[in-house]
Amino acid sequence: RNVMPKTLEGQITMEKTPSYFVTNEAPRRIHSMAKDTKLIVVVRNPVTRAISDYTQTLSKKPEIPTFEVLAFKNRTLGLIDASWSAIRIGIYALHLENWLQYFPLSQILFVSGERLITDPAGEMAKVQDFLGLKRIVTEKHFYFNKTKGFPCLKKPEDSSAPRCLGKSKGRTHPKIDPDVIHRLRKFYKPFNVMFYQMTGQDFQWE
């Protein structure tokens, strides 16, 4: 609480850290600090997410083994290495189970990473409603950046440059063996189905 910025009456303090969702102690600690906290989780297809995660690491450590090597405990037997963080993070149902011990589903909003790209205004409308805010951010605040493959945010009613995602986003993914992608899809499918049931939302990753 001490490291949070001061919040005036009528303001909402927001804080983002991707690792909260997958850190076992986080739900208990956040609940003990402020049990009315509203939580927003952006999720995307776990296979794409794992490849994206690997791509980010590869940019910093070009010497790491290939994605195919890291993804398996035993490639011949097709045993996926679920202890590798790039794979483990995408088992959303597992992490959500931990959060639901402390927070009701009504306090958690799941934002689709795919729809955030194809319909940013639609997803932002849900976020604003969830936070009890007036819908100020709408279609007119976005335009699609073809180079990046992501939408950019125009600053409302002023002339300053639009806000686009930084250098670390939108990197070209390495080519991955289609058989590995097929095995990963198979691996995630039961977890995805469980996640859809838990959230009441079908993200259509299949």
UniProtKB/TrEMBL annotation:
One of its GO terms (molecular function) is [heparan sulfate]-glucosamine 3-sulfotransferase activity. The keyword Glycoprotein applies. InterPro entries: NST/OST, P-loop_NTPase, Sulfotransferase_dom. Keywords: Disulfide bond, Glycoprotein, Transferase. Gene3D superfamilies: P-loop containing nucleotide triphosphate hydrolases. It comes from the Eukaryota. Residues 31-189 form the Sulfotransferase domain. The keyword Phosphoprotein does not apply. Its EC number is 2.8.2.-. Disulfide bonds join 152-164. 3'-phosphoadenylyl sulfate binds at residues 44, 52, 169-173. SUPFAM superfamilies: P-loop containing nucleoside triphosphate hydrolases (SSF52540). Belongs to the sulfotransferase 1 family. PANTHER family: HEPARAN SULFATE GLUCOSAMINE 3-O-SULFOTRANSFERASE 4, HEPARAN SULFATE SULFOTRANSFERASE. This is Sulfotransferase. It comes from Leptosomus discolor. The lineage of its organism: Eukaryota, Metazoa, Chordata, Craniata, Vertebrata.
